[in-house]
Amino acid sequence: MLPAVKSDARVPSGATTEWTAEDANDLRQALLDTRGAVLGLQTAAAGGLNINNPSASSILATGSTAPRTLAARFSEVTNILDYGADPTGGTDSTAAIQSAINAAPSGSTVLVPNGSYLISTGLTVSSALRIAGYGKAQSKLIGTSGQTVLTVLNAGANVYDLALSDLMIAFTSGNSSSVGISAGNATYGMVHFSLDRVSITNTNKAGNGVLFNNALVGSLTDCVVTGWDNSLNLLATLGPDIAITVRGGEYSNSNIAFNIGAAMLRAYGPVLEGNTNYAVKLSGTGSPAYYAFGTYYEGNGTADVYVATSTLAFVSTHGCQYTSPSAPTNLLVDAGATTPRVCSIGDFYSAAVTNNCAATPIYLLLPLSSIGPTLTGPITMIMDTANNSRRGILSADYLYLRSNVGNTLGGGFYEYADGAWKGQINALAGISTTSTGANNLRGSAQFSSAATKSVTFGTAEADSSYFVALSGSANETFWVTSKGTGGFTLNSSNATSTATVDWHLIR
To answer: Which one of 161, 177, 245, 472 has the fewest CB atoms closer than 10 angstroms to its CB?
Structure first.
């Protein structure tokens, strides 16, 4: 309460009324008490806010049971504005943001509020932090030409559990030395990282959006990386035990979207479009691997997926859509590739599949294309569901196993070359020691309302260690028993089968 008003009895006649130091302290405390009452707060002595040192006050959040100090609450999030970052982009914010990153405890969050923050010399992160904005269109880090906006590197160890989310990294005029995010060096990198809803953009197709010098396991989810020489660049120094996962997002308008020099990149449903050279390029001697599921390709230049020379690559695509009719090739393997392993299952092609490597075929299983593709080189195709003229297997030496479903040629091996059927094949070198068309190479047998049918060779085989390929005319299951030098027994799942079965002896 305020001190009592002085009475005239305490003041000498003719003297000026004076207050003692004790009176002044009483007045100060009364005013503080009054301010606390006005604000609806209690003093520290009463268990509330310490007005003289608010950060030391314990506050009970609505609905909670454990009071905590304001200092403890604020330490969970480091706001770059508290360190002098300029959200208008008018002044350089590099030093301010770096100070915020350095001050943030490992495992905490660095907050980038709405705004455009100019970065002139690049930022470095060396600990487990979550750097989060308010959205990739709201929280922007603006880089200048020839620098790396964000480097993830610890000089003596890997950086674990880094997370970036809801940010934009953009260049106004990036050149060939510009990098959005650079991960690690030849010795150390980042492990268990995540980039979520991050946009990394450039304007002149130069530099690298994300440069993986060294990284172990991590993911990019719903990111947009556009306008670079390489949207994602996985250098050949990474090694084959590295796994980067891409989920959704867009990687477009670069020269190359995914440049895989080593390691394994798994793509689940991203859009790869408008890239000048390749959507995906596998190159180098680091055994690069690319596994794609539901990925969409459109409007890419030279090829959608390209395996370069001197590359031992592993490519497996499933349910992807290649809708780039202007691209010369949807899937292209260079002549100098080192025995690549390429398999496509249930993909939709619109242009061409070209294999210039004579050593190993490309395997196309159940392609769904209705207008293509044009096939060139060693290709093994199993059941072209959309094109009856290619229903079956088209292999490296142009052999075709017909299922005789929906076609006129029937079952058997046929030659397909130069875009036309050349007729049924009656002899293959090495299939049997006594192989001729009239003897043991091939034959046809019809069941006589029975479950078994005996097949007798024209000339006895040297032994019974052979295999038999079957192609039947009915929706039944066929198998072989009682193999001998003189023949074998055909079996059907139908006890009264009348099916005709073509057989081929293979060793």
So the answer is: 177
